Task: structure prediction
Amino acid sequence: MPSPASLWFGGDYNPDQWPEPVWDEDMRLMRQAGVTLATVGVFSWSLLEPEEDRYTFDWLDRVLDLLHANGISACLATPTASPPPWFTLAHPDALPVTADGVRLTHGSRDTYDVCAPAYREASLRITRALAERYAHHPALALWHVHNEYGTHTYGEHAARAFRTWLRGRYGSLATLNDAWTTAFWGQRYSDWEQIHPPRATQYLPNPAHLLDFRRFLSDAMRGHYCAQRDILRAANPDVPVTTNFAFGSWVPVDPWRWAADLDLVAVDVYPDATGEAAAHQHAFAADLARSWGGGRPWLLMEQATGYLGARVRPKAPGEIIRHSLSHVARGSRGAMFFQWRASVGGAEQWHPAMLPHTGADSPVFAEVCELGALLGRLAEVQDTRVVEDAAVVWDPESWWALQSPSLPSPDLDYLAAVRQVHRVLWRQGRTVAFVSPHSPMPDLPLLVVPLLYLTSAATARFLADYAEQGGILVVTYGSGTADEHARVWPGGYPGALRDLLGVRALQHYPLDPSVDAVTVCGEDGEYWGRARRWSEELDVADAKVVARYADGPFAGRAAVTRVGRGAGQAWYVSCDLEDAGLGKVLSRAGLSGGTATPPAVEVVHRDSRDEQWVFVLNHGNGPVTGADLGLAVESREVLSGVSGAALVVPAGGVAVLRGPRRP
Ligand code: GLA
Result:
């Protein structure tokens, strides 16, 4: 996909919520802010098709023409995330059903059952109509299919589709019964029709059943996406197609399995923290988005300009710019927001926007304009590559498996564990590539595998190959525990990875975070930190002890180990060490490179054959200089023209340097 002439900057634009005279003001202010892309029509189905097969496109014609006349491109959505009330009344079976058997009703959005034939048919009808009318509109730059796929449904349509999916996966009931361990509690299936979605049941559900249903739903939604994508592509193969992944404390689909079907990965990012933690969550999501697409350019499709209840904490002045640049630095084709103009009514009337209720004379709009001006100077960064120096395995299936009620501890928090590893590396100035456990590991010097609860034999082989070939592998607690069907690997933990790591845990010893903590010290007695949720009684086979438990039930026993494997090494961290201790492990793992950055300063490098770009985001309270960061003397800051040597980035500020590539 060729790079657009400028970075994409803008947001969801809902002119359908406003009288037409407001549209002219929108255009004037969008131009003032430097907006280059507006996402239109995301929830406009009831307005575009007020009754079955009757369309009212005139308003959308005017919107697209107006955008084009003002030099703004359109990211045109298919509106299938919000079926009209007439549709759900005509097809009540196409409404989602919860696990408790409650059929939801319209009145909000996302009231669809992705498996319902009537919904599928209606989705394709509106998609075809949009494709026929707009596929060659000069404003059209990107198709945006649906919105944040993720509505679960447990009704009869889902049951039928689930059975078909299971037949494809297992072939025979005997194989399924074995994979799901249905011998337990006498749950053997003797006919496919006996299998339901994991609806509310009397006591604990089967973890393998839960896991497969999540896999199935992700595939079912992908099927819905691909059917729309095919129509849009056929109408004009030159316009890229995407959908926006939701990402937060929730991962409704498996983006590894979707990414190849998208021309461009797009994500919505709403951190639930403030300050440095929010900056880190942006960097975390951005590294994931780039990695899902295998390093291809991607797009930050949505973020907020400010406060949104508990979901998005307030932003301090300067954070709109810093957070957006963190994404661009990490490969986003731009920075988009939800939404352009704040709504006065409706469910999201208090959602922050680029143009707040207050109007254009607001600090938020001023910062938005500043961001637009800055992005306007960065178009050429699109042709450079993000420099990555460490890899982390990220696995939505392990995350789903750890949401089952049948676990060795209720305190195993997958998202927290992966975020922690990324945070420690981020603070060490490293840029992380995430990797799927289902493919060979990348050629990067360090690979961290946090809490990989599900570890298949194939994944264990990929990890062993990585170490054999010279990589430094660091595996953390809880990994290797179960296979792809959530069945425990017998013989001692960490199951599938025991031989590779040279250790064998005789028992897990979960800690109660409200009362317990165990101390870990290095072999020289140095204090490394504490663990509060998890520890293990570890026997060491051929590994070397690097750190030990200093107190608690396993005082004196190994806590962290290391073993040479081929040309590389394999480390094991048997407890949830806090950041400082994990930092010691990762720096002692012998990794060189990275940028030694002052605290709270984020530095990302991008390069091309001849050039290097350096993004410096100062999230801290004091200034940072080019000398602090070892910036090349001959590089120049893109806006100010100041040299790398003379550069001072004030507290809260940003700088983007461009210079010749260092050998
Ligand atoms: C999601 C949706 C948007 C909006 C925002 C609110 O990302 O895609 O339509 O509801 O959340 O933060």
Remarks:
- Residues 147-148, 268, 270, 302, 304, 308, 338, 348, 351 surround alpha-D-galactopyranose (CB under 6 Å).
- The first strand starts at residue 8 and ends at 13.
- The mean pLDDT is 95.
- The two ends are 29 Å apart (CA to CA).
